[in-house]
Fold these 3 entries.
Entry 1:
Amino acid sequence: MYRIINFKQHHNPDEAIRYYHGQWGGPDNFAFFDDAMRHASDSAPHLPRFYVLLKDERIVGCCGLISADFVSRGDLSPWICGIFVDPSERGQQLGSRLIAHAARDAAALGFAAAYINTDHDGYYERYGWQRIEDGYDLFSGQPTRIYRLALADTSQIPTPPISTQPFHTISHN
């Protein structure tokens, strides 16, 4: 069974931090991820928040909800970031489930929209996201696509069905 939880609710938060860093970090920045995640929110109405996707009790995916991403448009907030699903679990629309979970948390916090920056083209549009413009990546200086999802009506946030296994979402705002 799949479920999404705030990483702080995981029975081993250190494992969740190592997993997230393993997908997005490098050899020299574990301390950054460790510090950011340990200071993340799990119940207060603040950002950042980090989530893990569990299959039974094994971490198979992750994402975050942060106030600013490493892109030039610091005036936009919040950002859904670090979306990752293990290759062995792909093809079940689990990434879109992670995104929908983070978007619902953003809406519950009172945000009118959420943002994603990506190099993917055509994926996010399937789930109601609208490409608004390009920003510039902090590290490469290259353009990156920016997408926006309106959060006014959370019942309209697309959540695709998963036909192969039951799915439970646990939200620890």
Entry 2:
Amino acid sequence: MLPDAPLTWFLGAVLLARLIEMTVARRNADALVAAGAREHAQDLHLVTSLFHAVWLAILVLAMDDTAPAPLGWILAALLLVSVRLLRIRALGRRFVWRPLDHPDLVPEPDARRRLLRDPHFLPLAAELMVIPLACGLWWLSLPGLAVYGALAAARLQAERRA
């Protein structure tokens, strides 16, 4: 049985995960900058953070918590959030949101990196599709993914230039 207002609980869990991620990323970035890392594309980081804040605000304001909760989409979204949190844990102090240039950020070569430059981007892109579906906001899935895709491409380009 789902609790009262299941979408509110669900979005609360998503927001908590984002706050944890933001805290870890900021702590790691501050430590790397203190150790001599250089930041690139500061404006891009600001725009990306603003995008995520607006996207989450739209979810909170537009959702109808009295509507039936699509349990399958909620479970899929929670699985994706869990995958991202595990990825953040695996990256440890190398996990940052901002494009930084520092020797400690050089990724270890592995099979995933041959296919994806940063495997963290894929679960986030999937979340941007699934979380709105879990909230009954299907119309937010594709625009959110499109904006994030453009921002992720710009970040990867900034990292290549660094």
Entry 3:
Amino acid sequence: MTKSKKEQEEVLQDELKEEEVVEEEIKEPCEDKEEPPKEDWENKYLRLAADFMNYKKRSEKERQDTHVYANERLLSSLLEVLDSFDRAISQGQDEEDPTLKGMVLIKKQLWTALNNAGLEEIQSLGTYFDPEFHDAFMLDDTAQMESGRITEVYEKGYIFHKKVLRHAKVKVAE
């Protein structure tokens, strides 16, 4: 059931003719299809370029935010150390005590490093209560202060790069 050489040659000839016809069709310019106007291509290019620029800006901002807030957890734990220094220093009775002086110096050094990293203390005492920065811990029945003013700070609050890291716990005048 094999084909003869002549039949095989005829089949090959037919295939070659079909390929030539296809090649000619490819080489001929398509008259049916219209090319889009140049303005469409320019608009598409401009939109693509704008999308890419927006992507680059967004990626850069996300990278910077990640870098800035990467140390947030570490700073939160260091706030407890600052609080411990404040409590220990407030318990010292003799200002000439070398241990107390050393603790004050170490606290200042730690605070300077944290401040340079972007940490700021929320100023609370005597200001009006602001729920964005303060947690009302107690109400104070005092006539010495105007209603809504903070009379006492129980725990300092801190801001890190315009974001509240810890709210200040305060006593507010009624």
